[in-house]
Amino acid sequence: MSKKMFFIVFLFYSLSLQAQTYSLVIGINNGNLIGAENDARAMATMLQKKEIDITHKLIGSMATKSNILNAFKKIVNKAKENDWVYLFFSGHGRSPFDPAIANNKSLQKQLRGTGALITADNKMLIIRNSLAPLFRTLDRRNVHTIVIFDACFSGMAYKELFNQEQNFAFYTKTPTQKIAFPYKNLRFFSSSTYSDFSSENQKTRRGYFSQAITFCMARNRTNSSIKACLNRIKNNRKLPQQPIILPHKDFSVFPNYSKEIEIRPTYFSLKESLFNLANASEDFQLYAQNSQGLTSKNYAIGEKFSIHLASKKSGYFVLFKMGESNILQLSYPNAQKMPYISVNTNKKILLLTATEPTGEELMGAFLVNKSSALELQNLYKQTDGNLSKVDDIKKAISIIERSQIAGSKLLWITHEK
Question: What pLDDT score was predicted for residue 366?
């Protein structure tokens, strides 16, 4: 056989052994979401440019529970050892620590030790019952599997294996034991912890995490470089939540032959940066309830609802608001009041009515020390609470940055009836 013929045969043999790639990309703008479907389109574009096959793309009403499961099962049935599988979801998520199900003990028990995704037909895709068996199948076959979830409370949305009664303590709000990541070949990226909300950027109509992970994956191949990229974005106050990357060891997220591409990052405004300073914590939470006492983020014009504060910490109370008009307001402390919150407070702090214009409303609450509260009170007196100048906003940011004891951000949507 000639050298030329040998080279052709070798090239054909090498190409035949090249790993196959598969992906399922999902985006659902249900409820109050505005950017999940854009997230899915952006992720699909990035993966295609990385030479990853977009096997299935389910956007909006197409992303029903049955369609998602059928599409992923088809991928699992095809994937073989050393192939690459990508699963991306942007939409609503749920865990036992979702405040919306605080009084639903049955649902909390159903979700204990796992997480769930909400599909376009408003059904729960519980990981334990649906995706985890497929994850295990891929793992046994040594298929490289990359799972990326941009959803509230998605920090537990890979789990299934450890639901025995003796392990329940791990899933309390103050973990008492650590359990090893259960997969050898599955890599998990989550937008938030098991008890924290994910956020969207009103201007770009994208999820903050999806923006960041798409940008970082486009430029990097390994988990360590992607984590460093995400940390830079977070440290620059351009990612308002804490992503989860598992396992805690070195791994690649792309086949060796995938190429680097350039994507321009999209960030948020200085005003939004103030709200994103809030350090998400179970010890200090703002939440909204409708007139029936149910936790919600969606209110029709004219609907009455209440804002509640639950705090296990003490300090002087600070409250900022910004609505669709994009006017940043300092509500507390004001010229008359400098409220103090004591330990183990749980009370209704405001009664509101949803008013025009429709769109997103942001509220940020903080606890600070007395000297910082006095500084903010002076800022209120100088501005009458309307922080329209860049210097005033920067001053507020500086005070919160250096003295925040606890913080919580709340977003809700007002819409037409």
Answer: 96
Domain range summary for the chain, segments of one domain joined by + = 20-268, 271-415
User: Please, is 127 exposed, middle or buried when counting C-beta atoms within 10 Å of its C-beta (0-12, 13-18, 19+)?
Assistant: buried
271-415 adopts what CATH topology? Immunoglobulin-like (2.60.40)
Nearest alpha-carbon partner for 63 in 21, 116, 24: 24
How far are the Cα atoms of 12, 21, 23, 136, 301 from residue 76, in angstroms, in the given order?
26, 11, 10, 10, 46
Structure tokens at 167: 């392990």
**Residue 284 and residue 312 in contact, taking contact as beta carbons nearer than 8 Å:** yes
Q: Which amino acid type is present at position 164?
A: Q
* Residue 208: both structure tokens together: 């903050």
Distances (CA, A) of 187 to 116, 193, 221: 18, 16, 13
pLDDT of residue 137: 96
What is the DSSP annotation of 273-340?
HHHTT---BTTEEEEEEETTS-B-SEEETT-EEEEEEEESS-EEEEEEEE-TT--EEEEES-SS---E
The answer to whether residue 259 scores a pLDDT higher than 50 is yes
Q: How confident is the model at residue 39 (pLDDT cuts 50, 70, 90)?
A: very high
Nearest-10 crossing angle of helices 36-49, 208-219: 0
Q: How many CB atoms lie within 10 A of CB 101?
A: 18
Three-class secondary structure of residue 25 per DSSP? strand
Half-sphere exposure of residue 294, counting CA atoms within 13 Å on the CB side? 7
Cβ atoms of 147 and 187 closer than 8 Å: yes
Q: What is the per-residue pLDDT across 396-410, written as a single tens digit (0 to 9) for each? A: 999 999 999 999 988
Report the Cα 308 to chain-centroid distance in Å: 22
- What pLDDT is stored for residue 416 in this prediction? 66
- Which residue type, as a one-letter code, is found at position 64? T
Token pair listed for 317: 């109370």
CA distance 272 to 270: 5
Q: What is the tens place of the pLDDT at every residue in 359-396?
A: 668 899 999 999 999 999 999 999 999 998 989 999 99
In the CATH hierarchy, which top-level class contains the domain 20-268? alpha beta
Q: What is the pTM of this model?
A: 0.65
